[in-house]
Amino acid sequence: MHTKYYIGFDLGSSSVKVALVDAASGENILSLHEPKNEMSILSEQIDWAEQDPNDWWKFVCTGTKRILQESKIDSSNIEAVGISYQMHGLVVVDANGEPLRNSIIWCDSRAVDIGKQAFKDLTKERCASLLNSPANFTASKLKWVKDNEPELYQKIHKFMLPGDFIALKLTGTISTTNNGLSEGIFWDYESDSVASWLLDYFEFSHDLVPDVVENFTPQAYISKKAAEETGLPEGIPITYRAGDQPNNALSLNVFNSGEVAATGGTSGVIYAVTDNKNSNEASRINHFAHVNYSAENPTIGKLLCINGAGIMYRWLRNQSSAESYETMNRKASKIAIGSEGLVILPFGNGAERMLDNTNVGTQFCNINLNQHSKAHLYRAALEGIAFSFVYGMEILKNDNATIKVIRAGNDNLFRSEIFAKTLATLIGYEIEIYNTTGAIGAARAAGLTDKDFERFGKNITKNDHVMTFKPIENKTPYLKAYQNWKTELEKQIKN
Fold it and tell me: CB neighbours of 248 closer than 8 A, spacing ≥ 6?
């Protein structure tokens, strides 16, 4: 009897990750990413960010061929495909399925004002059925194209999310999910259908919306052309696709109200699952259909994004080219809690939705040239990122989120004891760390066609749990440092 496998793709803004898992056990066989260096982001103007969708496809193809070669498995034993992808991006294609322009990706801020005006015109009460303001999401980005590139807009056959484009290239079929439409702020939760009134407000043709398919069902099948380009078997199904943050929650066994997934990558994310659709913070917190959402089980993900998180620490490492993250963490650990008054606000990666789409930039406050060293900068950066997570948790609690357990991936930030212990201590909850990735989660989800989420979660706990960070009993120095940081942030917001 041959071992069967699932394959998962995680389309990020820095790389395409690919994972193979054992279909029976969920065990990770091999994971890798393409390209080996980071993908480039094009920024023709301040706060713009674009990528070529065909580059994504190129790296899906090379990554798939590599993983088949390096794992030495027989590709005919791969049974299904799962896709995770960077959220909120816009891809527009012509009638042949070819991209008409670069994708406007998640960290592009050009449509902020369009979203603000839409929220004002439509009113908070009307947008309540979207669970969000239109803000700087896919719908607003499409409106920007309509207003600024009218000739190109007329050629659009369908709009889609980045993951939908990968599914198109794999199958030749254009489709999306209700999860994806909710990420783009196109989904009406009251009618449980596409928000036709929003399309009308932006004057979008209803024909631009792709067909909607369900998760954990065969959505489309690998085409002959894609099989030739990737090495995957022709005819196997895509059974799952989701934005990277809902998918990250799935990867961490976060399916039920009160469970929270945290991510500390380029951006930081707190994703709390709830069955409560009410929101006090529609302009600061995003609400999306979770991967297990249905009309009968309306699980919602409350997503709070911090654009300036891991990118802050990466920037510091790049400026100290000889130092690894491990070295930086070790030097930072020798500095006292509070970094001797040095404060870093890590918000230098575009407008921050949790700060009402304000772009406060990165700020270094209270530097003493006679006292502070690189080690102080490292600690202040880690503390500043942790404090931004705590600030976000306060907003979530104000938005009726219940927090019972926090789970996080074993990524760069959570490998830092300073970051993880600061966060655990200030929020007062244990943080469970799991050694998994979005690509592994997407691969495993490809086999969830029975929708047995309890069994799926037990396998994650068995295969992936690494450690648990517990709050430190003496919170006082952490609270003092956080209050100092918060004071500096509020000064910048007022300015």
Answer: 84, 261, 263, 269, 271, 409, 438, 441
Q: Does domain 5-252 have CATH number 3.30.420.40?
A: yes
CATH C-level class of 306-434+464-494: alpha beta
What digits encode the pLDDT tens for the residues 458-479?
Answer: 889 888 999 999 999 999 999 9
Burial track 222-239 (b if 16+ CB lie within 10 A, e otherwise): bbeebbebbbbbeebbbb
pLDDT, tens only, 398-430: 888 888 889 998 877 888 999 999 999 999 989
pLDDT in tens, 145-200: 999 999 999 999 999 999 999 999 999 999 999 999 999 999 999 999 999 999 99
For the chain, give the secondary structure using H, E and C: CCCCEEEEEEECCCCEEEEEEECCCCCEEEEEEECCCCCCCECCCCCCCEECHHHHHHHHHHHHHHHHHHHCCCHHHEEEEEEEECCCCEEEECCCCCECCCEECCCCCCCHHHHHHHHHHHCHHHHCCCCCCCCCCHHHHHHHHHHHCHHHHHCCCEEECHHHHHHHHHHCCCEEEHHHHHHCCCEECCCCEECHHHHHHHCCCHHHCCEEECCCCCCEECCHHHHHHHCCCCCCEEEEEEEHHHHHHHHCCCCCCCEEEEEECCCEEEEEEECCCCCCCCCCCEEEECCCCCCCCCCEEEEEEECCCHHHHHHHHHHCCCCCHHHHHHHHCCCCCCHHHCEEEEECCCCEHHHCCECCEEEEECCCCCCCCHHHHHHHHHHHHHHHHHHHHHHHHHCCCCCCEEEEECCCHHHCHHHHHHHHHHHCCCEEEECCCHHHHHHHHCCCCCCCHHHHHHHHHHHHEEEEECCCCCCHHHHHHHHHHHHHHHHHHHC
| Domain parsing of the chain, residue ranges | 5-252, 306-434+464-494
Buried b (16+ CB within 10 A) or exposed e, 428-449: ebebbbbebbbbbbbbbbbbbe
β-pairing, 286-289 vs 268-274, is unpaired
Give 198-235 pLDDT, tens digit per residue. Answer: 999 999 999 999 999 999 999 999 999 999 999 999 99
104 residue type, one letter: I
Q: Is the pLDDT of residue 1 over 70?
A: no
Q: How far, in Å, CA of 422 to CA of 429, rounded?
A: 11
* CA pair distance 408, 263, nearest whole angstrom: 6
